[in-house]
Write a structure and sequence with these properties.
globular
Length: 73
Amino acid sequence: MSESSQRGAASASASEEQSCKFGTVVRALWPVKPALNLAQRTGLTERGAQYLIDGKRKPNARAALAVYAEIIS
C-alpha cells in the first residue's frame, strides 16, 4: 500500500469516528438514503436532515421522536 493510500484510509476512518451518535443511529435505521428518510418523517428538508446526521446541528425534538418511533415500531 502506498503512502498516499494509507493517508486516505486514515482520514476516512477519522471522519467515521467524528460522526455524531445521532447520525450513527439514523444510518443504522435507514441505511439507504438516511437523510431523505429522516426528512420525510420530520418535515425537514433533505439538506437540513443531513446537517443533523453529520452533527453540524443538534437534533431537535421532532427528529428525536422520529428516530424513537422507528426504534419502537
